[in-house]
Specification:
heterodimer, A: mainly alpha, 5 helices, elongated, B: alpha/beta, five-stranded antiparallel β-sheet, 31% helix
């Protein structure tokens, strides 16, 4: 990974599991910025796949789309949201009727929308931190 | 060791590549985002280790393993622990739940390395079979068998030195022999892939012996050959 690691600790937004992020990437914040940026770039198509599957009321496609989003949230330390994706995915697999997942879908969508904004904000903060 | 990453999530593939690079022991030969793209490459190039996601667009990681002409070491990378049973069934070396730490990655790599010498020494259960013939059990190394021919309720094993006849059926045999070494080319013939000298039309030749390839098996035969 990065040859010269930062001595300073970056303070992540509380929404991110900082202990997990420190464990995953140590203090290689250049790389953390890269991970957040890659996640951010892949976010929109994956998010759209989720909303499209919901619009089409296709439970199987919805399950698959959420399955792909799930680990991406994990890599940026959004572990609660990752778990929420996992629960929703299982719910999609278990439910027979589309209407049964609607409430939890909206809750998940809200969480993902917030995540998108927070990830973008964190990239900006990390970029500033890395270029001090 | 050489490896390939089959993973549809970009951030996971990047992280994995970085772990490989950091280890100093793995050369990443390629990254594919789905089975359809990975399979032709993997059937042309032999690699030591495959990092494989399970759920991807199109075919699953397990379907890729079903279609591979050989068995590299496999580390599954997935976010679902439900696949643990399948992982065991497919004899994968380890199972990394995404996201995983570098330390966990190293543990998986150690398992792969620990499994390597065994294969190199040829001591795996897949490198030989025992057949019952003439009232005794005879060990035959896979590499020594040229082909196997069905004779009704009996099966004939042909090696360069000798022929052995044993009471068995092709169906039962197919389940027990190494899929890495052998390929059924006809309802009455299973051949050692490494011993095929040439193929002409619907015939293949091993040590000058002509063996028919049935229409039903021809596609699979061509798929398994290292055609350039």
């Amino acid at each position: 990974m990065k040859e010269e690691l930062s001595d300073q600790k970056f303070n992540f937004d509380p929404i991110f599991d900082s202990a997990f992020l420190y464990e995953m990437y140590e203090n290689d914040y250049q790389y953390v910025e890269e991970i957040f940026s890659t996640t951010s770039e892949g976010f929109q198509p994956d998010f759209e796949a989720i909303t499209a599957a919901f619009t089409q009321q296709d439970l199987e496609a919805l399950k698959k789309a959420v399955h792909k989003m799930k680990p991406a949230m994990g890599f940026v330390g959004l572990l609660s949201l990752q778990q929420q994706c996992q629960n929703f995915e299982q719910e999609c697999a278990a439910k027979q009727e589309f209407k049964e997942i609607i409430i939890n879908y909206h809750t998940l969508l809200e969480g993902l929308t917030t995540a998108k904004e927070k990830i973008a904000a964190e990239i900006t903060r990390l970029h500033s931190f890395n270029n001090l | 060791m050489t490896c390939v990453i089959v993973e549809d999530l970009q951030v996971a593939a990047d992280y994995l590549s970085r772990c490989c690079e950091k280890s100093g022991e793995l050369e990443v030969k390629g990254h594919f985002t789905n089975v359809q793209e990975a399979l032709p490459y993997l059937n042309q190039v032999t690699i030591d280790l495959l990092f494989l996601d399970v759920e991807m667009p199109g075919a699953s990681g397990f379907e890729l393993l079903d279609q591979l002409a050989y068995h590299p070491k496999v580390i599954l990378t997935t976010s679902k622990t439900e696949y643990a049973y399948n992982a065991f069934e497919y004899k994968v070396t380890d199972f990394l739940k995404k996201p995983f730490t570098y330390q966990r990655f190293q543990e998986a790599l150690q398992k792969v390395k620990a499994a390597q010498p065994e294969a190199a020494e040829g001591n795996t259960e897949d490198d030989h079979i025992f057949i019952k013939t003439d009232g005794k059990l005879v060990r035959l190394q896979n590499n020594d068998i040229l082909y196997i021919e069905s004779m009704g309720d009996y099966v004939k094993f042909i090696t360069a030195e000798k022929k052995y006849i044993t009471h068995n059926t092709m169906k039962k045999l197919e389940e027990k022999i190494s899929k890495d070494h052998f390929l059924k080319v006809h309802r009455s013939y299973i051949v050692n892939i490494n011993k095929i000298a040439d193929i002409r039309e619907n015939m293949l030749f091993i040590k000058g012996v002509e063996i028919p390839i049935s229409k039903a098996h021809k596609a699979e035969v061509l798929k398994r050959l290292n055609i350039v």
